[in-house]
Structure formats: structure tokens, C-alpha cells
Amino acid sequence: MVTEFTRTLIYCIVLLGLMTIVLGCTLAVSATETPMPPTATATPTNEALVETWQTIMPGLEMRIYVPEGNVIGQLLVLRIDPALYTFRVHYHPGEPLNTSGWRNELPDAAAFVNTNFFDRQYYILGLLVADSVVYGTSYTDRGGTFAIQDGQPSLTSNIETPYQGEVFEQAVQAFPMLVFENAQAYTTTRGDRPTRRTVIAQDAQGRILLIATPLLGQRLADLAAYLLTTDMEIVSALNLDGGRSTMMVVQADTPYAVNSFDLVPAVLAVYAR
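Predicted structure:
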């Protein structure tokens, strides 16, 4: 039988190994800045691991989920009321920023996360719309789209609802869909592995959920299955770029940051109306 002490010891050993690997990696650099590694204070403490929603601003709530007690695999979730908040995409083609760079550029944002996958030259893959300006080419055989149209957010499957040139004010794309129409949409485990994750989701009340794993996330199929076991009432969920790109910043009375290891060229920001 594995005792609580043994389980804790295993977690510590795994975490130490994880941080050794991550911090030993070569960080991408630009001509003007170097990405900052995750701040130690950004990792939730044991006292923060309470699975209850905390209101950090009206219409903006934050909560930690710990799948089956797996502290290393914990999820940080922001729940956003679109009646009180708007969403904007910010994109710097070929000129990415690290977490602190985006914070300096977006001082009025209540929160932001990384979005699309991107190539080695820091140009996004898939479709991105920033303030009605369209970039890239839509996926047709995979993933989903989070979009703002006529001021209203939506999260759709690119297979079920292909992009046909609709006018969006804002949009981001990635893959795969994890949850679609209240059901698990991704079940493939071959070739997948646990890594940091960034996810955007919509619940039954139309609220938008931004999800990040500060330490080490689950495999995609496991994450898709887990999301449906929670009380988040998720209707749709889309995996965004993760791994070294995972980034989530909350700029409220109690700031919180999951810093990316890599520079990223695009973010989705949340603003109070």
C-alpha cells in the first residue's frame, strides 16, 4: 500500500526532476529580450489548493482543480462572465514576447493566455483574427475556433462548423477539440504524453473558461475525460498551444502568473466592459 508520505515523496521527486529538465532546456531568445522561467511564487501553495471558486473581480472567478489529488497535474481555471468582460486577440507576427513583455503591453487586461500554435519564425498556424484583421488560413480537418462575432463569444468545431469567411471581430484556432456538445471529443492516446496545457472552454451558461496547468498537465485524452467529471459544466473545450508556450496571467488585486518558457506571438486578453 502506498502511504501518504510515500505519495508525497514521489511527487517531490518527480517535481524536482521535471524542474531540472525544464530549467536545463535552452530558452528561445529574441534580439531584445529573454523569456523568463516560471516564477516560483506563481505556483499555487498547499493553502491555495482549495477546490472552491474565488471571486477576484466581479464576473471573474478563479479556482484550482487537483485531478485525483495529483498536485503536479493541478489545473488553474478562470471563469469569465461575457456580460461583464470582452475578449481581444493581440498578435505580433514574427515579433514574439515573453510573459513580462505581454504584461507590459497589456496593462489594462484583466487576464490573458497564449493561443495558436506557431512556426519557427513565430507566425501563427491556423486562423487568427485580431480587431477584425484576418491572419493565416483556417483549419478544415481538425481543431476548433474561439471567436467573437457581434460582441458574442462562441466555441465551435472546425469539422462540424467549417469557417466560411464569416466576419469575426476576434478569433483564434488550435487543436484538438477536447469536448464537443457535452461529450469527450478526443480519445487518442498514441504518441501523447503529459505536458503543460492551455485550454479554452465554454460552459452550459455561456461563460468562458481559461485553463492552464502550471506544473505538468495530463495527456490530452485524459484531460478531455477529466474535464467532464468536474462541476464546470463544460459544453465545449479546445486545446490551445501548450508545453513551453503555456501562459496565463491574471492582473487583478491578487496577481497570478503562469509564465511561458518560450516567446509567443499571440495572446487572447480579457478586458472589463
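Summary: The chain has a mean pLDDT of 85.
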